[in-house]
């Protein structure tokens, strides 16, 4: 995973803010890093089997305009965990 993060960081560069296209480019660079480092391809039962379709779907949704972009909004599906009152 280190290679994936390094590749993504190289794409991000010194930007202080990212737009959707930046994030897609970072994820695609991470994918290529995983492929190169692990000599893996889709179908090898690796993280790529989940990550590539997820990034493809996100890219397609973002390209589909505002209505489709809503599917990419980060919304929690479950309530956030609350800290235990009994924590020591």
How would you summarize the topology of this molecule?
Elements: H1 2-12, H2 20-38, H3 48-63, H4 66-69
Helix pairs in contact: 1-2, 2-3
Structure notes:
By secondary structure, the protein is mainly alpha-helical. It has one domain (2-72). The protein has helices spanning 2-12, 20-38, 48-63, 66-69. The relative contact order is 0.11.
Please outline what is shown here.
With 88 residues, the protein is an all-alpha fold. It has helices at residues 2-12, 20-38, 48-63, 66-69. The mean pLDDT is 83.
What proportion of the residues form beta strands (DSSP E)?
under 5%
Oligomerization state? single chain
Helix count, per DSSP?
A: 4
Structural class category? mainly alpha
How many domains? The number is 1
Compute the CA-based radius of gyration.
16 Å
Low-confidence stretches: none
Number of strands: 0
Question: Secondary-structure element sequence?
Answer: HHHH
Percent helix, as a range, is 55-70%
Task: Please summarize the sheet with the most strands.
Answer: none
Q: How far is it from the N-terminal to the C-terminal residue, by CA?
A: 34 Å
Average pLDDT metric: 83
What sort of overall outline do the alpha carbons produce when their principal axes are compared? Answer: extended
């Amino acid at each position: 995973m280190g290679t994936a993060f390094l590749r993504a960081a190289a794409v991000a560069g010194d930007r202080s803010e990212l737009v959707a296209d930046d994030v897609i480019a970072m994820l695609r660079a991470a994918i290529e890093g995983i492929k190169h480092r692990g000599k893996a391809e889709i179908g090898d039962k690796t993280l790529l089997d989940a990550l590539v379709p997820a990034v493809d779907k996100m890219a397609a949704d973002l390209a589909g305009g505002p209505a489709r972009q809503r599917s990419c909004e980060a919304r929690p599906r479950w309530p956030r965990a609350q800290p235990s009152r009994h924590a020591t």
